[in-house]
Amino acid sequence: MHDADITLTSPLPGATGAGPAILALTVLWHPDPSRIGAQYLEPDARGVVELSRFLPLFAQAGEDGLGLGHGGVSRLPVRIAREAGGGLSLAPPESRMAVEVNGVEIDRPVVLAPAQLEQGVVLGLGRAILLCIHWTDRLPRNNKVPGLLGVSSGAIKVRELIYAVASTDMPVLLLGETGTGKEVAARAIHALGRRAAAPLVAVNMAVMNEGLAAAELFGATRGAYTGAQSARAGLFAEADGATLFLDEIGNTPANVQPMLLRVLESGQYRPLGGDTDRRSSARVIAATDQDLNGQDFNQALLRRLERFVISLPPLRARREDIGVLLLHYLERAREDGSQAPPLPFAFASACANYDWPGNVRQLAHVLGRALLEWQAGQEPVFETLVKVRRATPAMPAASVPAKRRALGEFDEEEILAAMHNNGWRIQGAAGELGISRPSMYKLIEAHPAIRRPEDIAADELAENLEKSGGDVERCAALLRTPLEALRRHLRGLGLLG
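User: That's the sequence. What structure does it adopt?
Assistant: Structure tokens below.
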């Protein structure tokens, strides 16, 4: 294997324990979609990163670098420096640019702890651009695998392992939480291998009838069991010369596990009720989200499946990939004919800061539901889409009832934060606070720092709209006024087409 794009590893010097980790900044969201996924890697682990509109240069794999380049990003730099103990200090510039860390606006230097950096820190600039600050141990690579997107170390490593094993016939065990893309990885291994022209035969072991599992996999003769009125070939016969994908392998019935071990060791199996052995050259790929070492699972079978293991990381462990995935699903929706609007900064920020327990699959479903709501003329509320609930130590999150609060219990900063987090959209802020839209109107009217568009002078409106580059959402944030009302007022004044 000589292609530099598909070699097994590409670790950076000093990034695997021999020296300091490599600090990386990845573009999670940008008004120019072509910039999403671009990265900057700190060349000197002892240096300081000064982040401004023009520097440093962010590059896609194999391309020249560019500065962030957006008018909402200050020319004065955000200063990022290493701290003793593995943390980073982050100092915002003396400018009017809004700087957010993990969705919270800051106006003074903060220290990012090592644990935060391990999870990826989301940095928002000018309510227009999102970056992920994280560690990496691999150079950016263009080792594409269909369906397996991402610029993170984890995504690059998974694709390298797929390329490495695809050309062999050895069994592969795919490990990962639900929604991490195990079936996508299995199909990629098959498609990149020597058996690509043959079918991929897939079966979910979790839904297989326990009493008939052996017959499903290995076939059966006529009369081998009640109702067997004719002989059946079985999945191993169907996948002879091809690939057999055994999803949810941890749910394989105990009586079938020794049969699987035998066919993996020798290629031989015996159909249920048969008197002679048959052979299958099926290449087996298995997947599970379970710990097979801690279960009543045949350990000899596990050792056989473990000849080559690929662990797919959860999305929360590769937060720098969220922007690339959002862009992919938006583009796919448009290809399918959906009128997908530009994704609001506040929604992109909420996605970047969420931990996604359902991983990539959950991200795709949430974005799909949000697009349907936008098409119906409704403003999607992120917290509703992901069913976020606050938990107490005594009760699991799913069982905690929503607590109603009197309007007088909300403090001014909490109300401002809700409006800011939701792009100054009243419906979104109401959803975050758990109140109705009319109640949100009452809080806004009583708030000393939130302005009515009608009370703002026309020249101030025009000045801030120009400063925002025509972006009404950013203009609303600068003026601290509700977005929908501002848009209507600007149109009434002829300032917005």
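Residues 318-492 form one domain.
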